[in-house]
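Board notes (copied after class):
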Amino acid sequence: MNSIALPLVLLGLATGIAIAHAAPRPRVIAFVAFAVASSLAASLRLPAAAFDDAAFACWIFVAACAAAVLWPRMPGRLVLLLAGMGGCCAGALAASSGGRPEGYVLAPTIATLVLASWCLRHGARVAVHVVASWLIAVVLLVASVHALPVTPGDRPDHLE
């Protein structure tokens, strides 16, 4: 996958869901930590060869954030750790591709954070857990597709 859009958007969704499980004050601090970490990591100079490693880190982190919501009472420090590391993964992926992560990752994060917080406050915890499970399934699907061998139909024709 050579596009940064899908991993960053899904990372934003998973991080927003994870942050929503915290108390209100740590939520704000965690979102700010996520935004600052992604911006700072994106300002680093990373070689283009680091793209695959950064994308792999993003996929692993999407699964970690989505799985963290199954924790009954997530500690505030864990939320800060998830937010900071998620921001670093997003920034590293954007830096290795020469782009900026803010447009891809911050809007889905804040939208998911607000919606998941509302759902958790109004007793729709199951809906949030279903979305988190869906994110885990997507990560497993992406990982399995990349692990499969390339077939002749997957390569572009020589006439193109």
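Comment from the instructor: Helices lie at 5-20, 24-42, 51-68, 76-97, 102-121, 125-147. The radius of gyration is 16 Å.
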